[in-house]
Amino acid sequence: MRVAQYLLDAIQGELEKIERRRLAQAAARLTERYKAGNFSHPAIASDAERAAYLAVRFPATYAANRRVFSEIALRAPHAEIRTLLDLGAGPGTALFAASEIFPKLETATLLEADERWVAIGKTLAEKSGPAAVPQPQWLRQDLRSGFSCAEHDLVVVSYALGELAPAALEGVIRKAWSCAREFLAIIEPGTPRGFATVNAARSALIAAGAEILAPCPHKRPCPMAAAADWCHFAQRLERTTEHRQLKGGALGYEDEKFSYVIAARQSVAEQRARIVRHPGKHSGHIQLELCTSKGRIESKMVTRSDKQAFRAARKAEWGDVWEE
Predict the structure, then answer these.
(1) Backbone φ and ψ of 14, nearest 5°
(2) Burial level of 24, CB count in 10 A (0-12/13-18/19+)?
(3) 79: closest CA among 204, 260, 213, 218?
(4) Disulfide-capable partner of 147 in 112, 141, 256, 283 (CB 3.0 to 4.6 Å)?
(5) Going by C-beta distance under 8 Å and a sequence separation of 6 or more, which residues neighbour residue 72?
């Protein structure tokens, strides 16, 4: 996956406003924060840190959002997403990802407390052209102090719940769900802490009567949490030269690990299982680790003798639905 070129160009324009040494230092601080998994409070408070985020975190968050939205398009192909609400929007990352997945998207409302992020988000949206991204309505609201919202087809809380105090979490989830006409997508870093936040949200949504569209094939307690494990997935994205240099990486790509849950208002077609680890692909067999509709983690060996299933398993990737 690669970030859209108009966004890369717009981001480059923001990076050029910051002296290179300051940008590199801010990028290093930001990378260390994400490696440490410390999201208990916002750490982006200067223009250099915002530019560094655009360079080293925006592409990864965009890729995770796009992957999650693709699940809605796959699992609910007849759903028409025309309105989007993003809670804790930052520079509007979710909007740019959603505009590529939902061609009928008409309006977007973005709630963000930081006025500089709002200004940057508006600049990025202007670079998209009127046909690519609907001009959003930005509202200066902080999730920590309460917020108001109207109903939207899709509500997104992306990489934002982890910055809230645990006591505020359930209230934000409950309010977000009340604003979701069709779907609520919650996305967090693919760390034990990020997964714990997503799993808590999942439990609260099920208690509120939500259906689970993805990734779970059931509404029972999470078997990975019960095993002191964490459910997460990965999306590979292409790095630009600037991205690679600021992160000090040699590879031309990186894998963004994320946890997520998508809640739905309506019943969804049952899925048999979800692949929750990289498939072990061998010459004569393929080993799959599955979260099943029974609410259990099960291992499945697919042998070459079962030609149809083996063909499907060869194409299968971590995070895919498994129906065989």
Answers:
(1) -70, -40
(2) middle
(3) 213
(4) 141
(5) 79, 81, 101, 154, 183, 185, 213, 214, 262
Q: Degrees (nearest 5) of the Cα angle 116, 242, 188?
A: 55
Task: Show the tokens assigned to 81.
Answer: 């997403």
Question: How many whole angstroms separate alpha carbon 100 and alpha carbon 115?
Answer: 26
pTM of the model: 0.93
Question: Is there a contact between 162 and 197 (Cβ–Cβ < 8 Å)?
Answer: yes
Tell me the pairing of strands 280-281 and 297-303.
Answer: unpaired
Instruction: Please check the confidence at residue 242 and state whether its pLDDT lies above 80.
Output: no
Contacts (Cβ under 8 Å, ≥6 apart) of 130:
none
Distance of CA 85 to the CA centre of its chain: 14
Query: pLDDT digits over 115-162, tens only?
Result: 999 999 999 988 776 556 777 899 999 898 888 899 999 999 999 998
CA distance linking residue 29 with residue 233, whole number of Å: 25
Flag whether pLDDT at 223 surpasses 80.
yes
Beta bridge partners of 299: 289
How far apart are the C-alpha atoms of 189 and 49, rounded to whole Å? 19
